Amino acid sequence: YALQVLLIFAKEDNQSDGFWWACDRAGYSCNIARTPESALECFLDKHQEIIVIDHRNSRYFDGENICRSIRATKPSEHTVILAVVPCISADEEETSVLPLLNAGFDRQFMENSSITACYNELVQIEHGEVRSQFKLRACNAVFTALDHCQEAIEITSEDHVIQYVNPAYEQMMGYQKVELIGKELTELPKSDKNCADLLDTINTFIKKGKEWQGVYYARSKSGDSIRQHVKITPVMGQGGKIRHFVSLKRLHNTNESNKQVYFCFVFTESHSFKYKNRRKDSTYIKSITSQCSDAPSVQSRRYSSMARIHSMTIEAPITKVINIINAAQENSPITVAEALDRVLEILRTTELYSPQLGTKDGDPHTSDLVGALMTDGLRRLSGNEYVFSKNTNLSHSHLSVPNTVNDVPPCIVQLLDNEESWDFNIFELEAVTNKRPLVYLGLKVFARFGVSEFLNCSEGTLRAWLQVIEANYHSSNSYHNSTHAADVLHATAFFLGSERVKESLDHLDEVAALIAATIHDIDHPGRTNSFLCNAGSELAVLYNDTAVLESHHTALAFQLTIKDSKYNIFKNIDRNHYRTLRQAIIDMVLATEMTKHFEHVNKFVNSINKPVASEETSSHSEGSDCECTANIKNFPDNQTLIKRMMIKCADVANPCRPLELCIEWAGRISEEYFAQTDEEKRQGLPVVMPVFDRNTCSIPKSQISFIDYFITDMFDAWDAFAHLPVLMQHLANNYKHWKTLDELKCKSLRPPSEN
C-alpha cells in the first residue's frame, strides 16, 4: 500500500515541486489540487493520509478555510494536515502556531523547496502521526474482534480499574458493562474458595511483568462461585512501565481440563491444520477427544513423545520463535491466528532477509539490474542445459609481477594532502600515478591508522605488499581496477574517522577493514558472478557457483601475501591475532557479495540502528550520556555487522560522491556491463542484463534503479549510525541529476547541452 498525499497549491512553484519529487522519492501516491473545491472533491474521493496546504499567500485562497472544510468531513479524522508557511527573517519574531492548530492543522512547515527537506518532513510524518493514526483505525477492528470472542476478556488499568469487558464476560459473570467500567477490582465480591495467598501470588507475578495463568474462583453477580481458567497478561506502555492488564477467562471443569490437553496436543502436533479448523468451537475439540478416547495408551505415548521433544535443550532460536507464536495463537481471535499462520509460513522459508522485489512499472532496467545483482546462480537456456565454454576459463598461473615504487613525487604528496576529505578526487590520483593509485594512497592511509605498528612489519614490507596487490588488479577493466580499490579504501578510511565508528571498533577491526578494502576485488575479471557461472569458468567450478569472485579475491590475496617473506605483512604477528584478523578480513570481503545485501542491511537496522536509537532516546530523556557505543563493543557480533555495513557502503559509494566523480563512475561501470553483454552475445551465453546494450541502454535509468533498490535504504541506515550528512547531500543531488536526464529522455551521462 502506497501512502497517499494531497498537495493543495494554487500555482506550481519550487515548493510544490519539492513536495512532488519528495513523494516520488518516498514511493507515495501524490495528487495536486489548485482550488478549494477540487481539493475537497479529491480528498473525499481518495481519503489521503497526508495533506499539504500552501499557507504562504492568501491572495489565491485561504488555507485555514480549506483546512476547516476538510476537517468538517468524517474521513479527515485520521488525516495529517500540514501548513506550508513563509520563511521569516532573522529580525522577525516567530508567530504562534495556535491559530493553525485551531484551524485544524497538525503541523507547520517553514518554506523550503529542497527535495530532501520535503522528503524528511513527509517521512517523519509517516513514521509518527500517520502510523499512530493507522493504529487508532485498527482499534475499531480489534474491539470488534474482542466483542465476538468466545472467551471472557477483561482489561484493567495499572491500578486495576476496569476499562473494558466483552459480551462473553457479561454473560459469564452476570454483570452489565455499565456496572463494571470504572470500578476497581477490589470493589467486586470475592469467592472464598481460592487459597488464602493466591491473590498475593498473582500480584507478585504480574507486577514483575510476568504472565500468570491458572485456576481461579470468581463470584458472579448472582453470588455463585465460578471456576475459571484465567490468563493475566501485563501490557507494557509508555516508559516501559506496565499500563494495563488483560485477563482472559474460560469456564474450567474436569471435562474442560481434558479438552485443553488434547487441544494443546493437536495444536503442536500438526502444523498443517489451519487455525480456523483447529478452533472453530468446542464441538471440534470434543470430536478430537472422542477420537482419541478409544486408545488412551497410544494417545498417552504420543503425548509423552511430544513432551520430550518440547523439553529438548538443543533448540535453535528460530524454533523458539515458532513455538512462541504457536503458543500465542491458542487464545487469539480467528483473524489474528490466521495472520500468524502466514507468519509461520514465512519463517519456515530459508531466505528470510531477501525481499520479493517488484519493479516500478515493469522497468526492464530495474528488473535486469536487480536480477543480476541478487542472483548468484546459472541462467538456463531454452535447452535447459548449462553452457560451458573453454574460451572463458580464467587462468591465474601468470600473475603480474609488481614494478618498484621510488620515493613519492611532490605532486602526489600535494594531492594526498586532501585524502581525508570525502570530496578527494581519486581520478586525479589515478592520472598522476599512471594508474597505480592504490600503492600511494595505501601508504598514506595505512600510516595514518598505524597499520605497520599493529602488524609489527616494516614500511618496506607494507609497500611491497601494496605493490603486489595492485599489480594483480586488471588495469584493462574500466571499473573493477585498482582505482576502484583505492576509492573503496578511501571511503573505508573516511568512515573509520567517524566518531561513532571509532568508538565502536578496536584497532584490529580498523586494520582488518583497511586490508579488506584493499584486496576486496583483486584479480577481478570485469565480469559478474552470473557470467562466470553461466560460462562454466574454472573459478565457478572451484567455488561451486557460490560467491565465486568474493571467495577468489580473499583466497588469492592471502596466497600472494604468505607466498614470499618480502611482502608477508602477517609474518610477525602471533597465530591467534592472525586467525582473528584473517577471519575478519574474509568476512568483510564476502559481505560485498550482493546476493546477501538485504540480509546484511536488515540485520544492521535491527541489531544496531534500532537499539542505538532507543538508547539515545532514553539517555536524552534521562539527561545522561548515551552508552550505546560501549554496549556495541561488548558484543563482537555487533562489531561484525558494523564492519560488514561499512565495507558494503564503501564498495558502492559512487552515488554518494560529488557529482563529477559519480558521473565518471557511472560511465565506467556501464562500460564494463556493456562489454559483458557484448561477450555474452559473441559466446552464445545467456545475456544476464539485456538492457545493458551499448546501443540502447539508458544510463540514467540504470542509476535511478540502483539508487532506489540498493543505495537509499542502506545509506540511510549507515548515516543514522555514523552521522555522515555530506554523503546524503551528494546522494540527493546526484539522484536529482539522473532524474532530470531521465525526464529529458536522455540516455547518456550528461544533458545534451553539455555533451
**Strand order within the widest sheet?**
2-1-3-4-5
Major pleated sheet: 5 strands, parallel
Please state the average pLDDT score.
82
CATH class of the largest domain: Mainly Alpha
Strand content: 5-15%
Q: Give the helix/strand class.
A: alpha/beta
Q: Tell me the CATH topology of the largest domain.
A: Catalytic domain of cyclic nucleotide phosphodiesterase 4b2b
What gross morphology would you assign? globular
Radius of gyration: 32 Å
Strand tally is 10
User: Which runs of at least 5 residues are low in confidence (pLDDT < 50)?
Assistant: 254-314, 377-405
Enzyme class: hydrolase
Domain PAS: 145-188
Binding site for AMP: 480-484, 521, 651, 703
Cofactor: a divalent metal cation
